[in-house]
Amino acid sequence: MSIVSDHFTRAFGRDLTNIQVQHDKLQKPNLRNKSAPRGSILTNLNNANTRGYNYKNPKVSKPTPAVEQIYKQIAKEDKHNPSLVSDYQVSIFSYLRFNQKQITNPQYMNSQTSITSDMRAILYDWLIKVHIKFKLVDECLFMAINLIDRYLEKTKISRDKFQLLGITCLFISSKVEEIYPPHIKDFASVTNGACTKYDIIRMEGQLCKVLEFNLCIPSSLVFLNRYSRLDKNMASLNSKEYYLARYLLELSFLDSKFLQYTQANIAASSVYLSNQIFDKKEFWNEAQIHQSQFSEKEIRKCALDLYFFLQDVKKNSQFTEGVRNKFRGQKYLEIADISITYNNESSNRRL
To answer: Which of 6, 35, 174, 255 is the most exposed, having the fewest neighbouring CB atoms within 10 Å of its CB?
Structure first.
């Protein structure tokens, strides 16, 4: 047995060596060849301007000593977790903010002839329930919602394919974010026969083609967690202030008017409004301004929209059953049942 094995190893090594020798004899391509046809791979490499990637380096002003101290404190707390790459957090989040993908046409629902904004809200609320049923990580839901919006922006879809699109996006995001994602047949089963696993596979291929395989983007949850860490009221990521900001973030899924804002803007506005509702001394601090590059004035409009939508949800719970039940649980400190009082005369800093 060992003789056969040794013979196989020697033969494999010999063939590998021959292939390497032949490869070395080949003339290496000149990446600076100006005669390369326009639009070719060589041209794209030379120009470093391949579609789908942004090579620009965001320029952020130097932080003040007080802000620098906050950054160092967070980096010190995260030092024990190598996956958080604490030494590069400020640069990473500045880059993510600079390169985030925004819906280029926030009014895309007007061009959809078979589905409406209410149907969009119903689908998203249903996806939240499916997300809870499968016990997926939070990032799966945020990625799935973003994939749906970016696909609908570019392609019209019929009503009978709308649920298929939703479950396919959740299936894709689970494969990206989960270590052990649910099987495709499990995703098909929750549609009660409306979709088969073959339908999901076909829709997956179509979606990847439309989005040019540009699937992974920084979500509003990524920015929310970062901005919350910079706020002493939310730094632990398990306080009422933080969960209210999370609740506001997921409520924003259900109203298409929030498509006009970037992911970072919605996250910043959620933190800002949460501090407003809990009447904190500081709504949006210096470190958050530096990291997000949003002044208080720049996030106030989105915060107002979030506030009025939150009030509407309390009066009319239509299309919001899934997200409200989720945040009524003990895990989120029953934050959906919080009573909100608002006094217009209490402070000039109010919304």
So the answer is: 35
